[in-house]
């Protein structure tokens, strides 16, 4: 069954030109030119892919529970823009991690051992889009190819069949892209690749393998889309400094620290959050999760921002059956927070939007195998030296590998930060992550940690960095859940200058 992921975004661009009083007459300043999407670009992407990979043998069909994968690769394209309309061509190549060896399929012929692997996916497509300044909404039509290998081992006395096959099909897709800097854009994309069935020529077996993909990517435009001044959000750090009477481009260290502690601040950041969860699983091993979390603020219009927050987890996961761990990439999530430039309430702001998680785990033990979708919300209050709030989301499975268990999962993180006045960038912080797996048995659903730590904002050369260390004890946890967590956090800050 096909699963379609709809990515919907509303772009409402409004505003007026600024006027300056002159001795003779008022002159209206010229509006900045719109973002130019034309030209050659090169980029990279990561994401998740999933398939309805069903093995069909006489009298039986078996849904492969390992038919989701991490994908990562590169894209190259060229755009031509005329007014609001855009046409272009794009090719991409991604390595994939589909497949697990040696699983048994029951059939009237007896037990059949099946091994499969998909090694790479490549597409070439025409792009057709509508550009509204820095926003581009586009569709894709073209074709693609994938290389697969498979082995069938039939009951004793029957032949063993193995082969590698590169097969092509048609592609449909679409997405949104945003020019957050003159030469840099970010995108979120969904693609469906119709590969059709692979029929083994010498044995009674068939393999269904159409692919769906969610990609998060970044492109470098070789021709600048616009100047730095026209790619700032209305409430960027420079503007905030100017409003407080300081020189533009000179926010204080506390301003930067508070912005870095606000999940929906108008500040480009690249955080690295490492969580070591101790005494995990039946063998008491340590689970380690390094979350790479780039945050990109995007201006929708003079009243609204959209904050893109991506989480790419790199995981070392204890095996629940044997005393060992599996290492790799987990499921990648993308949150889009619609947030007002001015909430109308002093020291308070909020954001609300969708969160999408792609089944991108490089090994089945590292992810759910499901495409997840749900709402996410953040509330932030910043009186004086404090930054406090809550970030919450709940996700449900809406697609993915048909053989994997459905998902209904809550994440709720409250955060409390106090920036010491005259403390040379030092701050207290507490930001435990509470979770609930609603599909688990009663008494096994919640993980509730308590704790906190300290951090500091500092500079290495001209690069602002914030770092912190926190410890948490899980006062509520499922059986075999971790007892406590050590979190080390480092974030690179990129304020507008």
Helix content: under 10%
- Strand fraction equals over 45%
What is the number of domains?
A: 2
Number of strands: 30
What is the name of the CATH class of the largest domain?
Mainly Beta
Low-confidence stretches: 1-29, 238-249
Mean pLDDT: 86
CATH fold-level topology of the largest domain:
Porin
Structure described in brief:
With 497 residues, this protein is mainly beta. The chain is built from two helices and 30 strands.
Topology of helices and strands:
Blueprint: E1 19-20, E2 27-28, E3 39-51, E4 54-57, E5 60-63, E6 68-82, E7 85-98, E8 103-105, E9 112-132, E10 135-153, E11 160-181, E12 184-194, E13 197-199, E14 206-208, E15 211-221, H1 237-243, H2 253-261, E16 268-280, E17 285-292, E18 295-299, E19 304-318, E20 325-329, E21 332-340, E22 348-358, E23 370-381, E24 386-400, E25 408-419, E26 426-430, E27 433-437, E28 446-460, E29 463-476, E30 484-494
Antiparallel strand pairs: 1-2, 3-6, 3-15, 4-5, 4-14, 6-7, 7-9, 8-9, 9-10, 10-11, 11-12, 12-15, 13-14, 16-17, 16-30, 17-19, 18-19, 19-20, 19-21, 21-22, 22-23, 23-24, 24-25, 25-26, 25-27, 26-28, 27-28, 28-29, 29-30
């Amino acid at each position: 069954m096909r699963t379609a992921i709809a990515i919907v975004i509303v772009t409402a661009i409004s505003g007026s030109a600024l006027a300056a009083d002159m001795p003779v007459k008022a002159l209206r300043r010229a509006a900045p030119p719109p973002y130019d999407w034309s030209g050659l670009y090169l980029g990279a992407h990561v994401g998740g892919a999933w398939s309805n990979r069903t093995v069909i043998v006489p009298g039986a069909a078996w849904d492969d529970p390992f038919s989701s994968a991490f994908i990562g690769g590169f894209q190259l394209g060229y755009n031509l823009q005329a007014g609001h309309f855009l046409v272009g061509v794009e090719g991409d190549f991604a390595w994939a991690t589909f497949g697990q060896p040696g699983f048994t399929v029951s059939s009237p012929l007896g037990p059949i051992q099946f091994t499969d692997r998909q090694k790479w996916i490549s597409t070439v497509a025409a792009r057709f889009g509508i550009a509204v300044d820095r926003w581009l909404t586009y569709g894709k039509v073209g074709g693609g190819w994938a290389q697969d290998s498979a082995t069938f081992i039939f009951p004793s006395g029957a032949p063993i069949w193995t082969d590698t096959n590169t097969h092509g099909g048609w592609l449909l897709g679409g997405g949104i892209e945003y020019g957050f800097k003159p030469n840099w854009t970010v995108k979120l994309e969904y693609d469906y690749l119709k590969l059709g069935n692979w029929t083994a020529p010498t044995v009674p077996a068939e393999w269904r393998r159409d692919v769906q993909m969610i990609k998060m990517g970044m492109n470098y435009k070789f021709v600048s889309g616009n100047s730095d001044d026209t790619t700032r959000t209305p409430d960027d750090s420079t503007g905030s400094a100017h409003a407080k009477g300081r020189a533009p481009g000179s926010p204080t260290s506390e301003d930067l620290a508070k912005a870095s502690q606000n999940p929906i601040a108008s500040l480009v950041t690249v955080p690295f959050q490492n969580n070591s969860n101790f005494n995990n699983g039946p063998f008491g091993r340590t689970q380690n999760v390094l979350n790479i979390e780039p945050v990109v603020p995007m201006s929708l219009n003079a009243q609204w921002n959209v904050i893109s927050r991506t989480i790419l987890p790199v995981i070392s996961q204890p095996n629940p059956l044997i005393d060992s761990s599996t290492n790799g990439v987990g499921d990648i999530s993308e949150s889009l927070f619609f947030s007002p430039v001015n909430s109308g309430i002093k020291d308070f702001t909020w954001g609300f939007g969708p969160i999408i998680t792609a089944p991108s785990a490089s090994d089945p033990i590292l992810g759910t195998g499901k495409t997840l979708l749900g709402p996410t919300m953040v509330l932030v209050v910043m009186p004086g030296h404090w930054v406090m709030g809550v970030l919450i989301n709940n996700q449900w499975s809406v697609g993915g590998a048909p053989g994997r268990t459905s998902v209904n999962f809550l994440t709720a993180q409250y955060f409390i930060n106090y920036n010491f006045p005259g403390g040379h960038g030092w701050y207290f912080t507490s930001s435990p992550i509470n979770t609930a797996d609603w599909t688990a048995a009663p008494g096994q659903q919640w993980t509730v940690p308590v704790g906190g730590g300290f951090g500091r904002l500092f500079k290495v050369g001209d690069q602002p960095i914030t770092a912190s260390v926190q410890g948490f004890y899980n006062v509520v946890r499922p059986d075999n859940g971790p007892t406590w967590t050590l979190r080390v956090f480092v974030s690179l800050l990129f304020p507008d200058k």
